[in-house]
Specification:
Number of domains: 2
Order of helices and strands: HEHHEEHEEEHHEHEHHHHH
Structural class: alpha/beta
CATH class of the largest domain: Alpha Beta
Largest sheet: 5 strands, mixed
Number of strands: 8
Radius of gyration: 19 Å
Strand order of the largest sheet: 6-5-4-7-8
Shape: globular
CATH architecture of the largest domain: 2-Layer Sandwich
Low-confidence stretches: none
Strand content: 15-25%
Distance between the termini: 36 Å
Helix content: 40-55%
């Protein structure tokens, strides 16, 4: 599904956030099978968290293109795992906070059942094997996270790791891919304030963020949310919509300079 997410997003941006039925179907039909059609693809896109809606006149709308970034819902996530590769490892703890209008509107945290916990992971996280006994199964925990995320923006510190690990985990348990747009707080921080380093541990000290325990999922999710909050204080004036924010977070210096000159 990642290909259809990417191709649709490119098309939406090219057409000011709106696609006609014909334009949408031209893209969606490429990814249909004998058991699917473009309407089924639309349902799957929404179920995966991709922020697409259909208007009364039949056109398709990319919500992030029209939603002011301050009003957007952001799901700031952190995971702890028992290894670095999703093919041979698993999630052992999930923490997430839902932000909107600068406030925490919901929270999610859970341990995840795990039969094998390396000693070095315990030393890093403080999570003991007994903490994971009788915890929700992987499928149960991931299903709850899927529902919690909805179509919010997926935010994480070093988002590529959390996103790819969870994406593989969702796929393994038949929950589909992650269609939620991704925002990395490292990328955003690099473009909004100066720091010698941008690792979460360093920024916790640098920004004087109060934290319970580093390398625990919920605590780190809260800290990543604080880093994001700091970044949003110094955005350039041309960043108005959520889509503006997403593009700004991965923009080059040249792109930012041109944008600023054209304001």
């Amino acid at each position: 599904m990642q290909k259809v997410f990417d191709e649709l997003t490119t098309a939406f941006r090219k057409h000011d956030g709106l696609l006609s039925e014909e334009q949408y179907k031209h893209i969606a039909i490429k990814y249909t099978t004998l058991l699917e059609d473009s309407d089924t693809i639309f349902i799957l896109l929404q179920a995966s968290g991709y922020p697409i809606e259909q208007e009364e006149d039949g056109r398709y709308r990319l919500e992030t293109y029209f939603t002011p970034y301050k009003e957007q819902r952001y799901c700031v996530i952190d995971i702890e795992t028992n290894g670095s590769k999703p093919g041979t490892s698993q999630v052992i703890e999930i923490g997430a906070v839902m932000l909107q209008n600068g406030k925490v509107v919901d929270r999610f945290e859970t341990f995840v059942e795990c039969a094998y916990l390396p000693e070095y992971i315990t030393k890093i996280t403080g999570i003991e094997p007994m903490d994971l006994i009788d915890a929700p199964t992987r499928k149960s925990a991931l299903t709850k996270l899927r529902h919690f995320m909805g179509n919010a923006i997926f935010v994480a510190h070093n988002a590529n790791f959390d996103y790819s690990f969870l994406n593989a985990s969702f796929d393994r348990f038949g929950l589909g891919g992650i269609g939620n747009p991704k925002l990395c707080t490292i990328d955003l921080a690099r473009r909004t304030f100066e720091s010698e380093r941008y690792g979460l541990a360093y920024l916790i000290d640098f920004l004087e963020i109060e934290t319970a325990t580093h390398h625990r999922a919920f605590s780190d999710a809260v800290c990543a949310a604080k880093v994001m909050e700091k970044s949003l204080e110094t955005l350039p004036e041309y960043v108005k919509s959520t889509d503006d924010l997403l593009r700004f977070s991965i923009s080059s210096k040249k792109e930012r300079r041109i944008k600023k000159e054209n304001v």
